[in-house]
């Protein structure tokens, strides 16, 4: 049997990192490449070194520590990120990295060697909250994003450029990425499904495809009292119909289709003025790429039809188009089996959110482990997960790595 | 026959006043009780004095000039306002006041006397753009609003109090309001109906009742990818349904029912976050008070039902409730007849917007004359009306005043 991890020690590390960039009363702000991110990185590197790992940093600031194996093959990598959104919690990203440290410390304590090296990685700017796009570090690591372009990205608030900020905080490295033998990422679910169903472990089968579309409707502004309905070209009501259609598409397709209208703005935005323009965004996700394409096609055709009917113009902008990612079926089977071996309840499920793991799926066998999020909350200072669930996830990670890396009894 | 007014002179006065607070390229900003408003008032008072009128100012800053009659009865009053919204046009309000001056100058030029005195009035803060509520001066004049309360009103931007601003610009007077024998107001339609139907004169039958209601829906914020539709409490979609229902109510009731959703806000307002709260306003108007009450009752019941169905809470705030105002039927008949006598096309119609005239309806026989607005635009620097239409309206005003005040041949 694999050694037992120390759940209290895991929690202590989560709390310690959680004090860096902490808000009073809970939550953290460790936006990528800020002073808080640097402080988190410094602490992480010190922990890796304390655990005897060889620390590597590449040109985009990804950090990975390697615990040597008895053989010289490719490492089994576990990883995630330690940057946060502006009002983030303690577990999103940090769990996957710090469970890696806990895993290494457990192996060290027991003197357990592995055939393959083990790598624990923290990728730069997974959140994309300060610099777009998200999953920037893992994207560059895996070759999906261009390193030069990413180094030149300016912050969304205009304050800072990736390359300059890496230099400023001292994390522009020169190590070459290594292709892992396998990649595993432990993460909080950031959704309500496991909690609702009373299941401890999600064996993640892949990442939903994501289509973000922005609709800008232009009609005519008019006085709300003096303009009869028949003479209006109300951009707002056209936009409402598009929003309702997005909801109808989700209902029609059924799970796992989701549709979200998160941004909706009217201009001029006055009580007694018929809106001249309306802008909304629709976030459609599905694990089935073809169904997702059809959903987006149906919505854009609907938008054009209702705008024309109302005498309005609509411009449609593709903000994001990510095809679904499918994880390695054999590795997902192993996650499921490992959970069952520990008598942990487990459910195969897709991820509704993007993760660094999706960048690795094209590079090596990749899978993810989810643990429940209380009330499904994440990207929120109230983000919380049960300590027992966190420990269970870390244990499973260790169990799997011991298998994949060939642990010696 | 009544003397003919001078359309060019009327237009010259509109242009002259329009230079006070003018934007480059068109439009004016003469917000109530600002320096620009004071400059407009100073010019108006000088014009009245030049025309030999006795100028009166009351405690809320309403200005009225009186051209003496041969008898001593109550004056026939024409009036409107010279304040504007922040981005206003040259005609909204100004037309009704300056047509009054043109009328007096025409009578002076022809040496035409009237039995009753004639009053030309400009009421303080009709727009309500800087100080709420609108129609403040005429409301105080007619006793519908409390003078002390109105003097204590603070500007919507926090900069200034009505009484102090009146002192500052020198327009807190002490004259007592006089109850007119009749009140007539010439105004641009501010809507598209006359233009669309090719009619020159609107004989305004009354003012639509107005119900403004604010709905604030509270649900639960969630991640747009990780939260299945069935587990959401999406405040935004509930709000969209309320907005669509408002539109359905207008369609169901038919004209003159109008419904406008002018404000619609989501929070947190991010592409990939299910909205936690949504706020919208619905502006419902109808000339039939009972139908309007029923429309509002239907909408609020709908809002409560759909919010409950979606697991959301909704709070409903009455922002404004104005009952419809019915003008004097006999006087409206006179407007219509006077237009027909001049071979002007005329249409009886309600006003969709509020006007000073509605305050007088309870005090004395009251009516309004509308002339077409190009493209129905108002509260807009592009506000425009055809000079011939403006002159036609002013002529009609003079014709009616000559009748009502008893002009001597």
UniProtKB/TrEMBL annotation, chains A, B:
Zn(2+) 1 binds at residues 81, 92, 187. Residues 206-308 form the Peptidase M20 dimerisation domain. Belongs to the peptidase M20 family. Keywords: Hydrolase, Metal-binding, Zinc. The keyword Zinc applies. GO terms for molecular function: hydrolase activity, acting on carbon-nitrogen (but not peptide) bonds, in linear amidines; metal ion binding. Zn(2+) 2 binds at residues 92, 127, 379. Its cofactor is Zn(2+). The keyword Hydrolase applies. This is N-carbamoyl-L-amino acid amidohydrolase. Gene3D superfamilies: 3.30.70.360, Zn peptidases (3.40.630.10). InterPro entries: Amidase_Cbmase, Bact_exopeptidase_dim_dom, Peptidase_M20, Peptidase_M20_dimer. Binds 2 Zn(2+) ions per subunit. It comes from Salipiger bermudensis (strain DSM 26914 / JCM 13377 / KCTC 12554 / HTCC2601) (Pelagibaca bermudensis).
């Amino acid at each position: 049997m694999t050694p037992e991890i120390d759940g209290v020690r895991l929690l202590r590390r989560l709390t310690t990192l959680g004090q860096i960039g902490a808000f009073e009363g809970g939550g953290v702000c460790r936006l990528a490449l800020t002073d808080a991110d640097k402080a988190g990185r410094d602490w992480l590197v010190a922990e890796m070194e304390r655990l005897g790992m060889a620390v590597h940093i590449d040109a985009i600031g990804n950090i990975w520590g390697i615990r040597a194996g008895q053989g010289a093959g490719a490492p089994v990598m576990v990883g995630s990120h330690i940057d946060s959104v502006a009002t983030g919690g303690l577990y999103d990203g940090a769990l996957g990295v710090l469970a890696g440290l806990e895993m290494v410390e457990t192996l060290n304590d027991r003197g357990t060697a592995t055939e393959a090296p083990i790598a624990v990685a923290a990728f730069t700017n997974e959140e994309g909250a300060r610099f777009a796009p998200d999953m920037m570090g893992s994207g560059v690591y895996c070759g999906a994003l261009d390193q030069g372009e990413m180094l030149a990205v300016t912050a969304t608030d205009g304050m800072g450029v990736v390359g300059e900020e890496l230099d400023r905080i001292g994390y522009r490295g020169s190590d070459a990425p290594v292709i892992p033998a396998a990649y595993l990422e432990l993460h909080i679910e950031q959704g309500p499904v496991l909690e609702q169903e009373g299941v401890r472990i999600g064996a993640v089968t892949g990442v939903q495809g994501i289509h973000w579309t922005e609709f800008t409707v232009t009609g005519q502004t008019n006085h709300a009292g003096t303009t009869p309905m028949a003479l209006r070209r109300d951009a707002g009501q056209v936009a409402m119909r598009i929003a309702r259609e997005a909801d109808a598409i989700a209902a029609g397709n059924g799970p796992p289709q989701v549709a979200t209208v998160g941004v909706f703005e009217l201009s001029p935005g006055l009580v007694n003025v018929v809106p001249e323009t309306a802008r909304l965004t629709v976030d459609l996700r599905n694990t089935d790429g073809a169904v997702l394409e059809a959903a987006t096609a149906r919505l854009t055709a609907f938008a054009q039809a209702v705008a024309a009917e109302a005498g309005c113009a609509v411009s449609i902008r593709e903000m994001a188009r990510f095809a679904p990612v499918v994880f390695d079926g054999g590795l997902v089977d192993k996650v499921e089996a490992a959970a069952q071996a520990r008598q942990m309840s487990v459910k195969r499920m897709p991820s509704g959110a993007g993760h660094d793991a999706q960048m690795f799926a094209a590079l090596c066998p990749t899978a993810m482990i989810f643990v429940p999020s209380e009330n499904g909350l994440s990207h929120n200072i109230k983000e919380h997960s049960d300590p027992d669930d966190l420990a269970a996830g870390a244990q499973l990670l260790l169990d799997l790595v011991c298998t994949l890396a060939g642990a010696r009894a």
